[in-house]
Design goal:
It contains no helices and 7 strands. The two termini are 12 Å apart. The protein is mainly beta. Strand 1 and strand 2 form a beta hairpin. The strands form 3 sheets. The chain has a 3-stranded antiparallel beta sheet with strand order 1-2-3, with no helix packed on it. It is 0% helix and 24% strand.
């Protein structure tokens, strides 16, 4: 049976942190500024970068995850400086850049619930009922 997990990464205080179900799981030191490029962000898959992109072939991808993604939030702050209790449904606040609840159920667009309207394209994904969280 599939099990849901809350995954979160947070950057600040000299470290990039990975949390699983609200508990610190791994860290890497870092103090560099995170750039905000005008490029594509990938959720559930990543662009391949081991060779140049051939425009005739389209975007090259690493295989997507085999699982479900319920929600994604991007924040402009170190949201999780310590262990935390995961929210049942992610909420928006003044530090939220984008928040996708991914509960549209159909179509090819992930709608950003923030005023920024950073809507995203859903590519090669399926809308299927996920196990209860």
């Amino acid at each position: 049976m599939a099990a849901w997990h809350h995954l979160a990464s947070s950057y600040g205080g000299g470290a990039l942190k990975l949390y699983v179900d609200g508990s610190l799981w791994a860290t890497a030191s870092g103090t560099e500024t995170i750039p905000s490029p005008d490029g594509t962000a990938f959720i559930g898959a990543t662009a391949r970068s081991e060779r140049p992109i051939d425009p005739g072939l389209g975007q090259q991808w690493w295989p997507p995850i085999d699982g479900w993604i319920a929600e994604v939030r991007i924040s402009a702050m170190d949201r999780y400086p310590n262990d935390f209790v995961p929210e049942r449904r992610l909420a928006s606040d003044s530090a939220t850049i984008a928040l996708w609840h991914l509960d549209e159920g159909s179509g090819d667009m992930a709608r950003d619930s923030r005023p920024n309207r950073l809507n995203g394209a859903i590519v090669h994904a399926q809308w299927i009922p996920a196990p209860a969280r």
